[in-house]
Amino acid sequence: MLTELVNPSISRDGLTLSATNAGRGAGDCGEKGEWAWDGERFQLLRYSRLDTCRGIVASEWPVTYRASRK
């Protein structure tokens, strides 16, 4: 799980925070998290991780956690 935000970005509306920690320069492995603002704090919305670098783009990494936005 991400313990430090790497390459963080925030959505235009300020309600979603994202961070991607690429395992290498090609960006074909690593971890990616998305957090949603609930009015008090950011809650984990989605977490993806790919440990083995195989030429797979971040949008295709396995999702290991997903929550619904309320």
UniProtKB/TrEMBL annotation:
Pfam families: DUF1176. This is DUF1176 domain-containing protein. It comes from Rhizobium fredii.
